[in-house]
Design a protein that fits this description.
Number of domains: 2
Radius of gyration: 19 Å
Number of helices: 1
Helix content: under 10%
Shape: globular
Length: about 350
């Protein structure tokens, strides 16, 4: 049972979605952060995923740091004891062994049989998902629902990256690069999901993050989705909670076709808009990353960071359809998992 102080800490973290949410819990919980970093020349791409897993009845509980080489597809799972995890209450400052993770950067000191990554990366001009007292993050009012299977947060849609890492004896310079950070926490990953993200468009400062999943709800389930397109400093949102609708969602051997329609804020008004997304899968599936199940961290298939995503946003203004943005995002993360027929 949680102490009163732990309950108050978790309440405070409702408006600090980047922070650790598991204070006072000892079983049936996971939390993980996803850092994507791409160098200036766009030749080096990595995902670094720290986290904690609290198993059923406390079994198999541990902390970890996963790494993904987005070019080669190679992955590594660096497992640490549960006691190696620590987190500052109600703020994003997490350590897994000698590794430290914050919204403003990461410090890595991994050197074991699974691989070596040592160094420091700094993030500048971090752009978090907007918060308000009624909407504490990307999940909006769903953040207040205490029985969700999985919660999601976006720590930064886009930011500048600097610093260096020594990866398996090779120095990688990230000065002038770009990054993205998000996270998940709860009891387990959904039974089915599609996720994609890219912030490498021809126009700087553009980011797309999009996910759709099977969401358990009061003994049943529904298809929930959240899509955000950051463009020209404005975040265009299409989500279940905004009243947006999925017009088309199809998956083929090499593509995901996704069209949404809903009202968005533009020019100080709410206007009807349509967002068309075509994600192109590139190459074969990479090695397996681990994801939280109900009783253990299990492996799942993750695409390497080599997908491309075509995006077009059109808004209805004074009876005309105006294209506000069209572009193709590079180095995209694209993930399809579970029983996809439940969400298609």
């Amino acid at each position: 049972m949680s102490a009163p102080g732990d309950v108050l800490t978790r309440l405070r973290t409702l408006w600090q979605p980047a922070a650790y949410h598991g204070h006072g819990l000892d079983c049936n919980f996971f939390e993980g952060w996803y850092f994507k970093v791409v160098d200036c020349a766009e030749q080096q791409r990595y995902a670094i995923i720290p986290g904690i897993f609290l198993g059923k009845d406390g079994k198999d509980s541990h902390s970890f740091v996963q790494t993904l080489n987005g070019v080669s597809g190679a992955t590594a799972y660096h497992r640490y004891p549960l006691e190696a995890f620590c987190a500052v209450p109600a703020t994003f400052d997490v350590c897994v062994g000698p590794n430290r993770f914050m919204a403003q950067g990461i410090e890595l000191n991994i050197d074991n049989a699974a691989g070596q990554i040592v160094g420091r990366i700094v993030f500048d001009d971090v752009k978090p998902w907007p918060l308000s007292w009624r909407s504490p993050g990307i999940m909006d009012w769903y953040s207040f629902v205490p029985f969700m299977e999985c919660y999601h947060g976006v720590v930064s849609l886009d930011h500048a990256v600097s610093g260096q890492l020594v990866i398996d004896g090779r120095s990688v310079d990230f000065h002038g690069g770009r990054g993205y950070t998000e996270k998940d926490w709860g009891q387990a990953f959904p039974r089915a999901w599609i996720w994609m993200q890219t912030n490498h468009f021809e126009r700087a400062g553009v980011c797309l993050t999009a996910s759709v999943a099977r969401i358990p709800w009061l003994g049943s389930a529904f298809r929930g989705f959240i899509v955000g397109l950051l463009c020209e400093g404005q975040l265009y949102r299409f989500a279940s909670y905004t009243g947006a609708r999925i017009i088309d969602l199809r998956v083929t051997a090499d593509r995901v076709h996704w069209t949404l329609r809903g009202a968005v804020a533009h020019g100080g008004m709410r206007r009807m808009a349509q967002l068309e997304i075509v994600a192109h899968r590139a190459g074969e599936d990479v090695d397996l990353l681990h994801a939280p199940g109900r009783t253990a961290m299990v492996q799942r298939v993750l695409e390497s960071l080599t997908a491309t995503v075509e995006v077009a946003l059109r808004v209805e203004i004074d009876g005309r359809t105006v294209e506000l943005f069209a572009g193709c995002g590079r180095h995209a993360g694209l993930e399809l998992g579970g029983a996809l027929e439940e969400i298609l």
